[in-house]
Amino acid sequence: MPSYPKHLKTGSECPPLKENQLRLYSMQFCPYAQRAKLVLAAKNIPYEEINVDLVDKPEWYLKKNAPGQVPGLEWIDHDSKETKFIPESLIVSDYLDETYSQNRLQPTDPYLKAKHRVLIDRFSGITTAFYKIMQGDQKQGVEDLNKNLKTYEEALTATFFGGSKPAMIDYMLWPWFERLPLLSEVGFEFNSDGKLPKVAAWVNAMESNEAVQKIKVPTELLKKFTESRKQGKPQFDFE
């Protein structure tokens, strides 16, 4: 997987896109981009990763994706030779699963797929609480986070939400669970009261997953990035 590890900024040039090369626009610490990377890893899809500075965004990236968010998936169509681009983590992940048939991650049963999508959509309750804690509203954030985590404890009936092995839903939820240790410094300890045994076991199982291990962001780097963001000057590149 060729890559440009440094985050490209305003004034940079977009690296030339090659035919037969799938490209993912990403940011090293972005949990939404990590969703797409987990799918790519789980399905063993080769790709090129281009990191984008999300504060000082390159002009060329804003032309591709006006909101300037990541992930973004880009490729040159084999038949038309047209350059194609897809934004948004869930849309990118679904596209990859539908286009690359190996190791399908979505359930084939429409009802089960719908149930999984409900849990993915309602996960915004956890992400909102997570960022609320990170931004200093600890009391309300912790209360909201524990309340929302209970929903997933009740929904988990097997080792993974997908059953005996991780499915799309597991990879879509995982990035924020990987980041829960960051909250220990501001008063939140995951499963401190022991009321989330099934989710805690799921976390352990996910940590052993090959795709998760391959894409994992080192905790120390996450801490550095988080601290820089708290100071109002996000740093995307660390030596």
Brief overview:
This is Glutathione S-transferase omega. The chain has 239 residues and is an alpha/beta fold. The chain has ten helices and five strands, in the order E-E-H-E-H-E-E-H-H-H-H-H-H-H-H.
Topology readout:
Layout: E1 3-8, E2 23-26, H1 31-42, E3 48-52, H2 59-64, E4 72-76, E5 83-87, H3 89-99, H4 110-121, H5 124-134, H6 138-155, H7 168-178, H8 197-207, H9 210-215, H10 219-230
Parallel strand pairs: 1-3, 2-3
Antiparallel strand pairs: 2-4, 4-5
Helix pairs in contact: 1-3, 1-7, 4-7, 5-6
What does this structure look like?
A five-stranded mixed β-sheet has the order 1-3-2-4-5. The protein folds into two domains: 3-104, Glutaredoxin (3-Layer(aba) Sandwich); 110-208, Up-down Bundle (Glutathione S-transferase Yfyf (Class Pi), Chain A, domain 2), CATH 1.20.1050.10. A hairpin with a 6-residue loop joins strand 4 (72-76) and strand 5. The protein is of the alpha/beta class and 239 residues long. Helix 1 (31-42) packs parallel to helix 3 (89-99), helix 1 packs across helix 7 and helix 5 runs antiparallel to helix 6 (138-155). It contains ten helices and five strands; from the N terminus they run E-E-H-E-H-E-E-H-H-H-H-H-H-H-H.
